[in-house]
Amino acid sequence: MSLVSGLTEVTDADFAAEVKGSELPVLVQFTADWCGPCRQLAPVLKDIAFEEGDRLKIVQLDVDRNPETTVAYGVLSTPTLMVFRDGEPVRSMVGARPKRRLLEELADVL
């Protein structure tokens, strides 16, 4: 696992169990090691994961190592943030953003 943000990394193999099977809403960051904005976003997501861990699960998926899931959800750029509730994507956001803005955008799914 080369993502060093402290967030859980999911793969094509465990995506269904970790994301679709989750009791909580799940925010998936589609990311890549070479993606600068992804690295900028990681501490923001780590903070939110710590503060909202009882209401929201946050995971990362490396687009280069997990092409199946990346293609299945039509992810074309990184970072893409996708919120899943009851196994279905309910929100998609592209690009890094500050913590306050991200929390505002997530307010209705929390």
From TrEMBL:
Pfam families: Thioredoxin. Gene3D superfamilies: Glutaredoxin. Residues 1-110 form the Thioredoxin domain. PROSITE patterns: THIOREDOXIN_1, THIOREDOXIN_2. Keywords: Disulfide bond, Electron transport, Redox-active center, Transport. The keyword Electron transport applies. Belongs to the thioredoxin family. This is Thioredoxin. It comes from Streptomyces camelliae.
